[in-house]
Amino acid sequence: MSAPASSIKTVLLALSGNALVTLAKFFAFALSGSGAMLSEAVHSAADTGNQVLLFLGLKRAGRARDEEFHYGYGGERFVFGILSAAGIFFLGCGVTVYHGVSSLLDPHPAQVGPLTFAVLGFSFLVEGGVLVMAVRGVLPLSRELGFFRYVREKADPATVAILLEDGAAVLGLLLATGGIVLSHVTGNPLFDASASVVVGLLLGLIAVYLVVENRSHLLGRAVPDEVEARFVALVRARPSIADIHDVKTRQITPEVFLFKAEVRFSDAFVASWLSQALRGMGELPSGEGREQALLPSAQSLIRLLSEEIDAIEAEVRAVIPEARHIDLELEHLPVSAPGVAADTGVLKSA
Fold it and tell me: Looking at the structure, do residues 151 and 240 belong to the same domain, yes or no?
């Protein structure tokens, strides 16, 4: 249940770009004293740390399943995703807003020079390049659903985090540049401080969104409605199946789905097989010999139902490749004998 290679590549690309930009922004802040530039430097530093967490989560999620975790370690990426989002909120949003508010309460002019704008331009090229590469990595995967729907419903949370962080970084650079230019032209440092607050609030919104997304994956949200409907239609279309009930689904990761359902085999399907089996048996003996005579037929029936379940699973996976785990159970039906409860048997657990 390894994480997608595209997600790891995107995270490493963003990590390298942000580490370089962080150093440049802190250097520019040391020379200019700009609050917006400090906000940008803190923003990039937080992004770098968060991307380290995302990378660790993706690597740990790639471990094979074992006796302790039968469905693997795919959920690790969501745990680290929440830690990353917390970093964005407290470091990116908290520190940035705090510095911006402090500058609003006690404004002081920033020392802006050509180096400041050179660093902003360099940062914009790097951050913009990383964002473009991240978008280009998603585009081939989103042709069927469309870019925004794919990002919202199927993209790996690490990829979503990179897209949002880099998008916010590019927008933050524009806001910071605007604040610095206005402060420089008007001589009013409040523009610079206001830009810092806006960038911080933007990071806070992104952090909250990422926490909500990763939380839903940890809780095990259901697959999209159209995917569940496709699963039900495939099972119900089999001639051997009379009905399907109690369908439950879960996205273990964006690439691995779990489907569980109760099915009822068609009476005609079983009766047809029984008529052929009994026709070739002739007259059955009485007593203990009768049970021994029926044993091969019972074994053949069990094998028939098992093979039918295998065929259903293969057909579902051919249409829904993410359906790695499919649990089909016999429907709970009443029996004719009073006071006796029918049992529910698990036919197959893949």
Answer: no
